[in-house]
Amino acid sequence: MIHLDESLLDKNLKPEAVDEFIAAHRELIARVLAGQYGNSEALGWFNVEENAGAAALNGISELAEKVRREAGVFVLAGVGGSNRAAQSVIEGLGYNLGEKPRILYMGNTLSARAMGDALDSLGNKSLYANIIAKNFATLEPGIAFRLIRGRMRETYGDSFAGRITVTGSFGPGQLAEIAERQGFNFLEFPAAVGGRFSAFTVVGLFPMAVMGADIRRFVAGAAACEKRLKADPSGGDAARYAVIRHLLRKKGFTVENLAYFEPRLRMLGCWWQQLHGETEGKNDDAILPALTSFSEDLHAIGQYIQEGGRFLFTTFLNFFDKTGMAVPPSAFDDGFSFLDGRSCDILNPAVSKAAAEAYYRRGIPVLRFNAGGIDEETLGEFMYLQMMSAYFSAAFLGVEPFDQNGVEQYKRNLQTELRGV
Ligand code: PA5
Predict the structure, then answer these.
(1) 83 CA distance to ligand 1 centroid (A)?
(2) In angstroms, rounded to a whole number, what is the distance separating the alpha carbons of residues 238 and 395?
């Protein structure tokens, strides 16, 4: 189980202040725990079972197994909330998923070079694709879909359609209608779930399953977390994390730096950044969620975090891999012989401790999420915990959690620009 460690906060925030805030906001916390805050039509994620019950998981696994068996390359095209959860889990589990198929992410850039490079990299392996767009008006996945289906039609002739699964909505011009006309497989993007809350729906689960993730364990991790949080009238760690962020922000700590130590958690960090940024970033007060990869960034932006502006707090993602690999001895004295033969698994936890203590000494608030390892259950637990916490944060800020008008504005501007209107 993930543990939220607050022990390095005390120079800036006493645990009693967090308790007092929770006691003073019992009513609002109860509303959030009952799903009675914000747009009630966007709460399809709130009960994990709603879109990830046993029947749904069986259906997803069956379709995914077929694609997994037959695909050499699986193209996942989507942007923002439509692809980040799947990419986080697929990359987070990394090599544990085995070799087959290779995954290629598209639909998240309009760089002509990057799109061309992606097509060039396809080779002559058996191609399958999943295109995801809740509102199929987003240009990035739209262009990627054209490119990928063009290539597939060239290669497979009329049978190409059976290799494409689209995940989207019903309505004029939407992917359901297109799928029906063109013979693509169709999966419904639940109407009551926004992109960044879609990890535990077919949006996240289908590509994860194609790549070999155990989606039942992933969902079980989330469901156990949901049960625990909802059984606690204080909202458990989801509320506590939101309260700590809220109180730190009021003290002027307006940037939260999430530091991860396993490079393959980069996308999980990006998912976290989008979740909090798009859910909370709706007034002048919101926290800017920033991301760093340690050790790399300890030798770069780490200097600023340590001794720069005093508006930053850090949340450490202490999820570490274990490999059993040992530090090899050296034939000459290179200054590191104190580590001869010791396990490499001790290094990352040590660097996390060293950085946390340095920040603490400087008076920088440090929060830590500690977990025993990186597996499906932990990732499911972490993602549900963060979703609930972002929901709490929006309630404390008094903003609507489930819209993203800023994003929609840029999408409209882009269409206008390119249509030359
Ligand atoms: O969280 C969200 O709702 C957004 O980030 C969307 O996922 C993102 O804008 C992509 O939208 P769409 O799936 O409609 O292409």
Answers:
(1) 9
(2) 12
Q: Where are the alpha helices (DSSP H) in 161-315?
A: 175-182, 202-210, 215-231, 236-250, 266-280, 302-307
**252 contacts: CB under 8 Å, gap ≥ 6:** 310, 311
Identify the CA nearest to 356 among candidates 400, 421, 298, 420. 298
CA 81 to ligand 1 center in whole angstroms: 5
Ligand 1: centre distance to CA 182 (Å): 24
pLDDT, average across residues 104-132: 96
Q: Is 134 in the pocket of ligand 1 (CB under 6 A)?
A: yes
Strands 3-5 and 366-370: antiparallel
Active site residues: 278, 299, 411
Does the global pTM surpass 0.85? Answer: yes
Measuring from atom 13 of ligand 1, which residue has the nearest CA?
133
Q: Is the CB of 135 under 6 A from ligand 1?
A: yes
Terminal CA-CA length for the chain? 54
d(CA 164, CA 146): 12
Amino acid at 135: N
Asked whether 240 lines ligand 1 (CB < 6 A), one says no
Q: Quick one: average pLDDT of 49-67?
A: 97
CA distances from 167 to 43, 73, 149, 326 (A): 19, 18, 15, 45
Specify the CATH number of the domain 49-213.
3.40.50.10490
Per-residue pLDDT of 295-320, as tens digits, reads: 999 999 999 999 999 999 999 999 99
Question: For the chain, what are the domain ranges?
Answer: 3-34+218-405, 49-213
The verdict on the CB of residue 169 being under 6 Å from ligand 1 is: no
For domain 3-34+218-405, the CATH superfamily is: Glucose-6-phosphate isomerase like protein; domain 1 (3.40.50.10490)
- HSE-CB of 336 using CA atoms within 13 angstroms: 12
The residue assigned the tokens 């390359």 is: 73
